[in-house]
Amino acid sequence: QVQLVESGGGLVQPGGSLRLSCAASGFTFSNYYMTWVRQADAKGPEWVSYINTDANAAYVDSVKGRFSISRDNAKKALYLQMNSLRPEDTARYFCVRGSPFSTYYEDMTNWGLGTQVTVSS
């Protein structure tokens, strides 16, 4: 079965950086788009960035120029480098199989359990 395990979250000061990782198993990682989604308290989920099978990426406007998504197909790993973090980036970050526009995205079995990112002084 699909397993996605996120790591790398934590508490960071505004302006700081974090690198999130997602370890994937149970499917042919290289064949799928992958997405990072975040959900802040009392808010709905928001896709942050996704990457296609050719490693082309897209970002939500609020993180452009600050976040960078990447993938390592040999390691079956997805990454999100987050720089210049802001308090409004505080959320739980999830790794998701599929693009935000795919049916995979709607199926919670394609989501990891997430890692918490808190940006605060």
Walk me through the structure.
The chain is 0% helix and 45% strand. The protein has no helices and 10 strands. The chain has strands at residues 3-7, 10-12, 18-25, 34-39, 46-51, 57-59, 67-72, 77-82, 91-97, 115-119. A hairpin with a 6-residue loop joins β4 (34-39) and β5 (46-51). The chain is globular and about 40 Å long.
Give the gist of this structure.
The chain has 121 residues and is an all-beta fold. A hairpin with a 4-residue loop joins strand 7 and strand 8.
Instruction: Please count the helical segments.
Output: 0
DSSP strand (E) fraction?
over 45%
Order of helices and strands: EEEEEEEEEE
Residues in helix, %: under 10%
Mean pLDDT: 96
Distance between the termini: 40 Å
Global morphology? globular
Total number of beta strands: 10
Going across the biggest sheet, name each strand in turn. 2-10-9-4-5-6
What structural class should be given to the helix and strand makeup? Answer: mainly beta
Give unreliable regions as ranges.
none
The largest β sheet comes out as: 6 strands, mixed
Indicate the radius of gyration in whole angstroms: 13 Å
Layout of strands and helices, then pairs:
Blueprint: E1 3-7, E2 10-12, E3 18-25, E4 34-39, E5 46-51, E6 57-59, E7 67-72, E8 77-82, E9 91-97, E10 115-119
Parallel strand pairs: 2-10
Antiparallel strand pairs: 1-3, 3-8, 4-5, 4-9, 5-6, 7-8, 9-10
Features:
single chain, 121 residues, mainly beta, 6-stranded mixed β-sheet, 4-stranded antiparallel β-sheet, 0% helix, globular
